[in-house]
Amino acid sequence: MKNKLIIKKVNLKKISKKQFEIVKAALPDLNVKKWNWEYLHSNKAGYSFIAEINGTYVAHNSFIVSQFIINNKKVLVAKSEGSYANLELIRKITGTNQRVFREVVKSAIKTMKKEKVFLAYGFPNKLGHKSYLYGGYSVKKINLYTSSLILRYDYHFYKKNNKTSFFKKVFLKVLNFFWKQLIIKPLLFFFVRKKNNIVLMKQEQFEDIKKLFLIIKKSAPSHYLMINRNEKYLSWRYLKNPYFKYLIYGYYKEEKLVGYVVFNKINEKNFKNVEIKDILYLNKSIFNELLGFVFKWGVANNISVVTLWEDAYEIKKTNSSILIKNGFLRCRTLIKKTFILNLLNAKIKDNSLVFELKKFLERK
């Protein structure tokens, strides 16, 4: 019998049980609620393309779609977020190492281009690079700058193992004590303001974030691709997120929002970390105040590490001394992050495109 390969665009509202099984094969913690949040209820419903051979589902490529802004134009951008191919099952059905996933990639690109998606991108592992190249993507390196505020060393001791010896526990307590007394407290005393008008924001204040974003995007460089911070996106990404509870703090001056920061707390057995998902500000003074607030919040809540991502444009807006004064002593470490890109309907050169790289790009 000749093997018949069919690639379908899934109706996300009516995804079947068998289709969902192939989608979650590589994501054991995924359930229908999380799937619907991620792909169906996003700022614009996403895509899922599934391959079947002789009626059996064997591979998929799924995309989260969001509204971005580039050169003052609203565009739809697809992020390749979920992908999987059951190679063993493919061999069992066909008797060969038929390369199914690359055909799924190619079919997805063809459909999204037809449906006017501006561009598609992702951060896949290197195992899939050849398939993405075959499907029409380019594989590139992009500069990402990471900074870390280390408040306690619990994370570094326990990140690989939940257990440690008695002597290591004693050493950890001593290390944390001296780190707090010699580094953390002096930084807080000399550089961080005791009070400022930074408040926990409510959903009805999302209009203020939208207004702030509209001001900030005017000064963005040409071809700078920014996520559109409208109320629908903010509500979906942070308030309705089934993975984490997010905190959104706004900095007000004369009743106007001049900056905001979003972060989540990751609770592990022996440590708690914070990830700054987004931060917007009108000037470097406000950036300093927001980081100082996160610094104080982290100390008050026994956080081990706070992490921040910045892109090549963001690091030009402020100097490293602001980060260092606010405890981010591991400052702007350059990471060459591999990503895939297909411009689809974007009429620009890929080397002129500048991505806004912040942690909100992560799926959680």
Describe the fold and architecture:
There is one protein chain. Helix 4 crosses helix 5 (129-135). The chain folds into two domains: 5-136, Aminopeptidase (3-Layer(aba) Sandwich), CATH 3.40.630.30; 144-339 and 350-361, Aminopeptidase (3-Layer(aba) Sandwich), CATH 3.40.630.30. The radius of gyration is 23 Å and the shape is globular. The chain is built from twelve helices and 14 strands. A hairpin with a 4-residue loop joins strand 10 (256-267) and strand 11 (272-281). Strands 1, 2, 3, 4, 5, 6, 7, 8, 9, 10, 11, 12, 13 and 14 form a 14-stranded mixed β-sheet that branches. It is of the alpha+beta class and 364 residues long. The chain has helices at residues 17-23, 32-40, 87-94, 101-114, 129-135, 154-158, 166-191, 206-217, 231-239, 284-300, 314-317, 320-325; strands at 5-9, 44-53, 56-70, 73-85, 119-122, 138-150, 198-200, 224-227, 246-253, 256-267, 272-281, 305-310, 330-342, 354-355. It starts with a strand and ends in a 9-residue tail after the last strand.
Descriptive tags:
Aminopeptidase; 2 domains; alpha+beta; 364 residues; 14-stranded mixed sheet
Could you outline the blueprint of secondary structure elements for this entry?
Layout: E1 5-9, H1 17-23, H2 32-40, E2 44-53, E3 56-70, E4 73-85, H3 87-94, H4 101-114, E5 119-122, H5 129-135, E6 138-150, H6 154-158, H7 166-191, E7 198-200, H8 206-217, E8 224-227, H9 231-239, E9 246-253, E10 256-267, E11 272-281, H10 284-300, E12 305-310, H11 314-317, H12 320-325, E13 330-342, E14 354-355
Parallel strand pairs: 4-5, 8-14, 11-12
Antiparallel strand pairs: 1-2, 2-3, 3-4, 3-8, 5-13, 6-12, 6-13, 7-9, 9-10, 10-11
